[in-house]
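This week, think about what follows.
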Amino acid sequence: MGLKSLTYPILFILIIFLLMFIKILPLDTIPKEWIGPDVLFCVILTWCLRRPLSAPIVLIGLLFLLQDILFQRPPGLYAACATLVCEWCKRQVLRAEDFPFVAEWLTASIAIVAVFVLSQGIASLSLIATPPTVMFVKELMPTILAYPVVVVLLRYGFGLRTQQMSGFDASLGQEH
């Protein structure tokens, strides 16, 4: 494993840490009527859908767990839901011969909805105090709409192209 093969995972970690740092900065202390998109989740989904081999499940799980701790969410709930959904997204990409952007956006949209529904449902079943569902819906739409913007920024800003899967066995996860 050479230094070149570690470029994307290291870049991935640095981008996520930078976005987490920006999110915890007290830049705006006035409560807002609207909720912005979950850019961190969009970046991680983009990485899973565009470079599935450079985003290992352990790394994704640890990053989501760190987010749960930093953003004061129930530890592990969002992390478990998001990690499972990200792994599902990676499987969809690895199984597909051709994965155009429309399919990628649809897969990401399904993943975003699944994470929000799973985390909200599990939290309410386990009697954890949850924000109103309206807040999740207000965050859901901007997150889905922000996904193409994140893809464009990562594509042209960092050169994150779709990984070619030629010579790759998706069922075993190994090269021929």
